[in-house]
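Figure-free illustration: sequence to structure, shown twice.
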Amino acid sequence: MRNPSVEIGQRYGNLVVVDRTGSNKRGEAMWKCRCDCGGSKEVKSRNLSIGKVKSCGCVSTGPKSTDITGRKFCRLTAIRRFGRDSNRGSLWEVKCDCGGIKIVLYRALVSGTTLSCGCYNKDHKASLRGKLNNNFNSTKTEEERIYGRSISDYGLWCVAVKERDGYKCQICGESPSGKLFSHHLRNYADNPKLRTDVDNGICLCAKDHRSFHRKFGWRNNTPEQFEQFRRYENGK
């Protein structure tokens, strides 16, 4: 098979030929090329000559190469192309209306699959409180709702306590996924004004949460009891 003519120093798209590296199994000449982005790639002669390969992979080809810089997709604005993922999908760096920065697949942007940096879903869930929530039980009295901790902002309080404590148990320092509790220092039932006060919460793992209530019960709890519990556990 006759290889197309390729010479050192020739340019093909973003690639400049710098050296001959030998031949592949089919006897086709292979060339080392330097890309304008600073990368390098080994390419066979035919792929250079017919324009099949024009970069080291930093530039997408075909429909994925569409320039969407500055275009807005829901809450996201495209800033710049960010290369490709392991499946050769075009990646874009985008900025969210909330100020967050995210790397998103081109197809996820144009199809509407990705709408924000993650804040859209959080805002949407936060808006579905009370009667707007699909799980709202209209047969419950307000007293039953409070006792069952179905009050407004209780879920947000739980998250806020865990975030403040870095999603770590404040006794053992562990972060067991899905097994963390936001514990009330002054217990929930006896202190209605402190039920969603972040300063009245502490993050505990399931084991330490059980141990505390096994020792002090579920009523009339105090911060002093918690400090006593902390000293005892840390002194083991």
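We now fold a second protein in the same way, so the two outputs can be compared directly.
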Amino acid sequence: MIRKTALGIVVFILVVFLGAGWYFSSQIIHPAKGPCDKKHFIYCGTPEDMGLKYEDVSFTASDGVSLKGWYIPGNRKEAVIMVHGHGADRHEGLRWVRVLNRFGMSVLLFDLRNHGTSGGDVTTMGFFEKRDVSGAAAWLKAIKKIEQIGVFGVSMGASSSILAMAEDKNIKAGVFEAGFSSLRKELNDIASRDFGLPSVPLINIVSLLFRLRTGVSLDAVAPEKAIAKISPRSLFVIHCPGDDYIHFSHGKRIFESAGQPKDFWASPCTTHAEAWQGDPDVAERRVALFFSKNLR
């Protein structure tokens, strides 16, 4: 009787962790697509609503996935690619567009794979998404004849942009806001904070399921290991000290792992990926001056 009871408890615990692992991995791979949140996105229309001319554009990732976006032309031969976060879309970057365009830069906003109106059916938190960023840079170079290309990634977009820039020399400068230092470390944080569950064995199960479902290892998504390859190109790390989703320590780890030249700004914000909301004037000035200086 005792043996049967013990076995039942073990089976129950195993089922709980397998269920949690499946749910957890599903949240990563298939992000919820909700309506545009004006509190976070600020602008939920098109660039035209902001008084900016734009083009609807289509291009492909370096592995052929179809991507959709907006291109806002500037009056200089410099462009910035805006890369949104997990579960977001191209609208997330609109808050930064006006000042970049005022400085003469063109801006390309697009939906990452498995987001918005782009193709693709899985999300990998940066491993495949880096191909989307490289595809955007290749399109700017081939179609718009722009050589001086920068990237601005937010959250998952920051991680995707770091991984892309580490491999793609077409990208000359990068701003990375609210990125995680490694996917495994971030999932460990989420397990304890949001679910009250131990990371072992939960994240081991998530890791296995994630790999089986996407072909990608959690440990292959580690921006802090890739970022040193960006040097001597310039980068700028931004993170909120009060970030309520990706802890401030992730931003510091990314910055400390990077080579020179580099800069860091702790925006006075308390919500994940809302550095602009923390101090719009300072945020816009610092980002615009960074790109203006490094995309000459």
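Summary for the second example: DSSP finds eleven helices and eight strands in the chain.
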